[in-house]
Amino acid sequence: MTVNSLPNLDAYWMPFTANRQFKQAPRLLARAEGMYYWTDSGRKVLDGVAGLWCVNAGHARSKIVQAIQAQAAEMDYAPPFQMGHSKAFELADRVTQLTPAGLNRVFFTNSGSEAVDTALKIALAYQRVRGQASRTRLIGRERGYHGVNFGGISVGGMVANRKMFGTLMAGVDHIRHTHDPARNAFSVGQPAHGAELADDLERLVALHDASTIAAVIVEPVAGSTGVLVPPQGYLQRLREICDRHGILLIFDEVITGFGRTGQPFAAQTFGVTPDIMTTAKGITNGCAPMGAVFVKQEIHDAFMNGPEHLIELFHGYTYSAHPLACAAGLGTLDTYADEGLLTRASELQDHFAALVHSLRDAPNVIDIRNIGLVGGIELAPRPGEPGKRAFDVFLDCYDKGVLIRTTGDTIALSPPLIIERTQIEQIVDTLRGAISRVA
Ligand SMILES: Cc1ncc(COP(=O)(O)O)c(C=O)c1O
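Above: the input entities. Below: the structure tokens describing the complete assembly.
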């Protein structure tokens, strides 16, 4: 389809999009393969963001495509309540071989937002089944992003995602975020300063008492708020405080899962194991909607009591472990394994870091952050127009054939893990030009 035969754009209310701006100058993608998209007018665009942090193995991978096609022909749907199908068990078995030690039970959802709300519910229910029913409070972190459902925005800490939606969940509090440009600007990898920010959890324990707190949820690397890499020692300290007070630690690995930071999961990259871990996106390479919540076996086992004919957890979705998503997940894990993709970011990260940090001298760049194959380039906002400078850079890059993402005035890069070194160079060169042109 060419731009001359655009569909009517009115009816579709687009998510997280400046609808009016988009509809004046639509950016329509029509095809994808490997590292590239092609627009509806046939223009080739290098994917610098793995779609939306999800297409980790690149686009249109044959094993995934074939798995989905074969599954659609064989069995389109199977009810997940009181029934099963073998690919759900196979995927659960295989994916739990990649997760950090002990996180060997998995509950399937259809998105990261659902994974987060599922994790929060499991945390609350677990405290109850283990006899700690007073632990009803959930703790998130300022600037956190945990999807868009009510649980997720309640523990989340991005004001625009919260302020329109009433009073949110009761009984939620937040620890401080870790962004500290005064001490950490232009850190390569994990910033040196800020481990002590984890002690903010002690402040909330002192305020509320540990006996009222069920769980703390954080992203190991905060993505949507603008790429905040955890300070050295911070996650370890958070783990210690949780252990001291019997508080569950939840890592939201929706973007960090499946190879983004150089290991299959960020928990492994940073050497800190949570009690519960949420994932989505890369589990199916973005090819079918799916999320997954991994829990320690003792959490799962705590529910396995009472009469055996009774449902143990009153939670689940019509499309939990959907056959097409499970097939996509299995094809994805095959592709990751065949090509060593879940650790490829660790091979590329030094090259990636050097190039991304080479933008330090470009106009208006006030900070650069990176880990694995994630980069954040923060620009000074134009006075009175927050977000506009970075958005203009996004438009300029797209025009020049590179897809990036912006959040506020931070440019986020998270390319597919199959990226070649020359393609990293292309992304950074295009960005440099765009940042200079936009000024
Ligand atoms: C850390 C984190 N959690 C949750 C989500 C929500 O995932 P979804 O958009 O699949 O609901 C995202 C999405 O980017 C995310 O980055």
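Note for the figure: The CA atoms of residues 139 and 173 lie 5 Å apart.
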